[in-house]
Design brief:
The complex is a heterodimer of chains A (about 425) and B (about 270).
Chain A lengths: L13 H14 L4 H6 L4 E6 L4 E4 L1 H7 L3 H4 L11 H18 L1 E10 L5 E12 L5 E10 L1 H48 L12 E7 L9 E7 L4 E9 L4 H20 L3 H17 L6 E10 L4 E8 L4 E4 L5 E4 L16 E7 L4 E5 L1 H4 L2 E2 L4 E2 L1 H11 L5 H15 L7 E7 L13
Antiparallel strand pairs in A: 1-2, 1-5, 3-4, 4-5, 6-17, 7-8, 8-9, 9-10, 10-13, 11-12, 11-14, 14-17, 15-16
Chain B lengths: L2 H4 L3 E4 L5 E5 L13 H5 L3 E5 L20 H14 L5 E6 L1 H12 L4 E7 L17 H13 L9 H5 L5 H5 L10 H12 L14 E8 L5 H10 L4 E8 L3 H4 L1 H12 L4
Parallel strand pairs in B: 2-3, 2-4, 4-5, 5-6, 6-7
Antiparallel strand pairs in B: 1-3
Helix pairs in contact in B: 3-4, 5-8
Classes of the chains: A alpha+beta (about 425), B alpha/beta (about 270).
Chain lengths: ~425, ~270
């Protein structure tokens, strides 16, 4: 079109416009009457009381009625379903009277053959120049497709609400179940441990149990109890595995140890008895074993003598009053319950004022630490213990509890601690139980 | 809770005039009375309110259980009366509110001393020996219509409409705001209204009662008006030449005139 700036020579000029007008005029031969009657929507006018004064052919066709049946004989509400009438009277009519117009209201028309016709209705009040309401003009649009689609949406929403309600209910139920389970597990776990350590004259004891998961029963256990007026028995151990089966084996182990100790407190015989009991289970299908340290305390003149034996358990550690620490090795002690006859190794030591005997499970030494997530290990435990002031069993347990807490998620197993000792002589020991 | 805010209470008219308490029915809100308030306000103290669940009442006060029976709505009426310490009240109830007024008057005769029932019906569903005009299925159809028409109500706009009683223009700007109601609350009110049966309660009415019925009312046809009239001894029945269920909108002058004439307070 470059250079074509002369308007008179442009295509689509004045002459063409005349031609187009002629085409439009031929298309627009419809009279206003025909535009009204054959409009693609229903159209009606009513008096203020709803009496139908005029209605177009489109709407009559939808309704299956003749104009003579309707005009002057029916009210607009007569064309509605009963529910639609109620809606009209409670919402549509008041709004129309208050606002002068209402648009896009979904209603159902009732055709002569009883069929329901979903429509969208818009009404406007025509007023005189003085503002007096004269009549109501109403357009009616076929809304079958739209209403069907809305019904789909509504169904979808209802289904989604129902699904949400059910999910919420299931979640609540699951939470309640979990809370009940945890409560039961906590009670069961408690039953595997002494509720409180007994008070022993001239002796101090401390203990701690770390539960790795509230949903899983751990297999660690310990106990401290009187044998007679002079002697006390203690044990600490670990049944392999977790969960209800491990808890059952732990319970069996604890009560076997207690019963065996009352019969014959010699540490090696006690562990041998436990080995027989667990092995019977082991050979009949429940392949669980345990490791444990069992010992007896006896008061001497100025000390407490300790006799203990171990079956496959990490060596006990003694914190001395002079600031040193030493393991009590029991080499050759075998896992308990695996073989029909097991060898256990005994050892002995003496605890003097300020000395503390520490028993622990491998949750402590196998905790992961540092950026490399290395095993904490027995060497580190030895160094940590030696570095603590010799302030008695409870102080040592408190220090170790802090150590465990510092491991964070590096501590992923249950851990039991049991510390026994003579309180330091010089210390005022305000926390001491004795 | 501040009852005035909760029920969007409006007080107008002569401060020392006898009290008219106007209660809207199911559908819209206190705006239903707007065309007759000016005439009534000349000689009365006019108190208007929205039931919880309608208009600009506080939606936070909604309690589905309470508002699933007409007693819950009657409690709103009594609490408004107590909050404003209204006495010697003429309770004007439209549609279902006429029955709410019956319950309220039975509980607080010391406050409510007259009833004006506008297009009342004690039961909408037909029963043996009684014609209310509707079947249970019809009511289900109405509930469908409620589902299909939100009338400008939207969860997003509701706080704007409800939370600004001091700035009514906020609501007025919204088309259809007078009838814009939380659809869940509207459904409960609809069920409570149209499934109610207050015929026995009519026997408890012990205060002077004016019944206004319309000559052409789909919801409360004339035989229902006659039923209410005969059930309340000493009541007066006035038939207004009006079409529809809301004479206070379609025939405001006649409606206001009938009320003031009955009360002997015609201007």
């Amino acid at each position: 079109m470059m250079g074509c700036t002369d308007q008179t020579s442009e295509p689509g000029g004045e002459r063409d416009a005349h031609a187009a007008d002629a085409v439009f005029t031929s298309l627009l031969e419809d009279s206003a009457e025909e535009l009204y009657e054959q409009a693609p929507c229903g159209y009606l006018s009513t008096l203020m009381d709803g009496t139908i004064a005029k209605i177009n052919a489109t709407l009559l066709d939808w309704l299956g009625l003749e104009g003579s049946q309707v005009v002057g004989r029916m009210r607009f509400t007569d064309l509605l379903t009963v529910g639609g009438k109620l809606y009209h009277e409670t919402h549509f009519a008041p709004l129309l009277q208050m606002q002068g117009e209402v648009s896009g209201i979904a209603l159902d028309l009732k055709a002569a053959d009883g069929a329901r016709l979903p429509v969208l209705v818009t009404s406007k009040v025509k007023t005189s120049q003085q503002g007096e309401p004269l009549l109501i003009r109403t357009t009616v649009f076929d809304a079958r497709d739209r209403r069907a689609y809305e019904a789909e949406l509504l169904r979808g929403r209802t289904a989604a609400e129902e699904a949400r309600r059910q999910a919420e209910e299931a979640r609540r139920q699951a939470e309640a179940d979990r809370a009940r389970l945890q409560e039961a597990l906590a009670v069961l776990q408690q039953s595997l441990l002494p509720s409180a350590l007994p008070e022993i004259p001239g002796l101090e004891a401390g203990s701690y149990y770390h539960t790795a998961s509230p949903d899983l029963l751990g297999g660690d256990f310990y106990d401290l109890f009187a044998l007679d007026g002079k002697r006390w028995a203690f044990f600490l151990g670990d049944v392999c595995g977790k969960g209800p089966q491990a808890a059952a084996a732990t319970s069996l182990t604890r009560y076997t140890l207690r019963a065996a100790a009352l019969h014959d407190p010699d540490p090696v015989s006690v562990l041998s008895t436990l080995n027989m009991v667990l092995h019977e289970r082991y050979s009949s299908g429940d392949s669980r074993y345990c490791t444990a340290v069992f010992g007896v305390l006896e008061h001497g003149e100025d000390h407490v003598s300790v006799q203990l034996a171990s079956g496959g358990h990490p060596a006990a550690l003694v914190q001395r009053a002079d600031g040193s620490a030493e393991f009590l090795p029991t080499p050759g002690g075998m896992l308990i319950g695996v073989l029909p006859r097991a060898e256990f190794t005994a050892t002995r030591t003496e605890l003097r004022p300020g000395d503390t005997l520490l028993l622990y499970t491998d949750g402590l030494t196998e905790a992961r630490t540092g950026p490399e997530r290395e095993l904490y290990g027995e060497e580190a435990l030895h160094a940590f213990t030696a570095a603590q002031p010799a302030a008695g069993p409870q102080a040592l347990v408190t220090a170790l509890t802090g150590l465990l807490a510092g491991f964070g998620d590096g501590l992923d197993d249950d851990t039991a601690l049991l510390a026994l000792g003579m309180p330091p002589v010089s210390a005022p020991a305000p926390d001491s139980e004795t | 809770m501040d009852i005035r805010v909760r029920n969007n209470v409006t007080v107008t008219g002569r401060a020392d005039g006898p009290v008219l308490l106007l209660a809207h029915g199911f559908g819209c809100d206190q705006n239903m009375w707007r065309l007759i308030v000016p005439a009534l306000a000349e000689n009365h103290r006019v108190v208007l309110f929205d039931y919880v669940g309608s208009g600009r009442a506080d939606p936070a006060a909604w309690n589905e259980r309470r508002y699933s029976s007409l007693e819950g709505y009657a409690l709103d009426v009594l609490e408004v009366c107590e909050e404003l310490d209204l006495r010697d009240v003429t309770f004007v109830g439209h549609s279902v509110s006429a029955m709410v007024g019956v319950l309220a008057a039975a509980k607080a005769s010391q406050r409510i001393s007259r009833l004006v029932m506008v297009a009342p019906s004690p039961r909408y569903i037909d029963d043996e020996g009684y014609r209310g005009g509707f079947s249970t299925e019809d009511i289900e159809e109405l509930l469908e219509s409620l589902e299909s028409n939100y009338l400008g109500w939207s969860a997003a706009m509701a706080p704007v409409i409800m939370g600004n009683p001091d700035r009514p223009e906020l609501g007025q700007e919204l088309t259809n705001a007078f009838c814009a109601t939380d659809p869940d609350m509207a459904r409960v009110f609809a069920r409570t209204t149209f499934l109610s049966d207050s015929r026995d309660d009519l026997k408890t009415v012990a205060v002077p009662t004016l019944i206004l019925e319309c000559s052409q009312d789909v919801i409360a046809p004339r035989e229902v008006g006659a039923y209410v009239h005969s059930a309340i001894p000493g009541s007066r029945l006035v038939t207004l030449t009006a079409t529809g269920h809301c004479p206070q909108l379609s025939a405001p002058q006649a409606t206001a005139g009938a009320i003031t004439e009955y009360l002997g307070t015609a201007a």
